[in-house]
Design brief:
The chain has eight helices and six strands, in the order H-E-H-E-H-E-H-E-H-E-E-H-H-H. It is of the alpha/beta class. Bound molecules: adenosine-5'-triphosphate. Keywords: ATP-binding, Nucleotide-binding, Transferase.
């Protein structure tokens, strides 16, 4: 039977997802995995693939998802779409709300505070509900851009690892999309007609990250293999597992 472009692309994405699971030994029998579902294309795609993986017998995993709403940031997320998407894939979705004080002056940017508090809510929810792993939707481009940011701005050759065992809690972060190319996820999201979130965060602006993205796009034009080169350097330097 002829395959549609959507099915062919999903197959490519799923193969890389499986390779990431294997290369980084991300799954163990009995894992309870909590997906951080922002509503963006990456975490939607992550949910779709983990939902499929959940139907395989060994290693046996259980998957649920959580969407964290930030009460004090007018950042509209269409939770009814997230609920129907998760339900369609047989994944239970939890919605939790949190907030932070953005009126007290702080030396930290609002985006930093917002993501710090979101992360805190995610960890708390995972621990209170017996999840031993949290799956996040960062892909290979995110990991490379972070490595560039840390190298050029922090003086540290480091990045978001594919697997990170948290020091102070019995929770491991996994990034099963770590081998995915962003453009493939974007194309799949379009073919699969993912609904775009009404992302109206008033604090979002051009950041150093956006600049790294542009620079990396330029580098890839000169050397289409550049991503594999950076990945290899990160792997060789032991930066992908903590
Ligand atoms: N509000 C949220 N609730 C739960 N998890 C979240 C939330 N926001 C982000 N995450 C998790 O953190 C990851 C990285 O967040 P980031 O803000 O970079 O993603 P995004 O661009 O909003 O969306 P996505 O990565 O899903 O396309 C997401 O892929 C998701 O797993």
């Amino acid at each position: 039977m002829p395959k549609t472009p959507e099915q062919i692309l999903y197959h490519t994405l799923y193969k890389r997802f499986q390779k990431a699971l294997t290369d980084f030994s991300m799954l163990s029998d009995g894992d309870r995995i909590l997906i951080g579902l922002s509503g963006g294309k990456d975490s939607l795609c992550l949910l779709e693939m983990l939902a499929q993986r959940q139907r395989i017998y060994k290693p046996r995993i259980e998957v649920e998802a959580v969407h964290v709403r930030m009460a004090n940031v007018s950042y509209e997320s269409d939770t009814s779409y997230l609920e129907s998407f998760a339900k369609e894939h047989g994944v239970k979705l939890h919605i939790v709300q949190t907030a932070f004080d953005d009126t007290t002056p702080s030396d930290k940017p609002v985006c930093f505070l917002c993501s710090w508090h979101r992360r805190k809510a995610l960890f708390r929810f995972a621990q209170e509900n017996g999840f031993n792993k949290i799956a996040l939707g960062h892909h290979q481009d995110d990991i490379i851009h972070t490595a560039m940011l840390n190298t050029f701005f922090q003086g540290s050759f480091s990045t978001m690892p594919a697997v990170k065992q948290m020091d102070k809690m019995p929770v491991t972060i996994i990034r099963p999309l770590c081998l995915e190319h962003e453009r493939d996820i974007a194309q799949y999201a379009q073919l699969s007609q993912y609904v775009k979130q009404k992302k109206a965060c008033p604090h979002e602006r051009n950041t150093n990250r956006t600049q790294m993205r542009r620079i990396f796009e330029e580098i890839e034009k000169t050397n289409p293999e550049a991503r594999y080169s950076v990945w290899h350097a990160l792997q060789k330097g032991g930066k992908l597992v903590e």
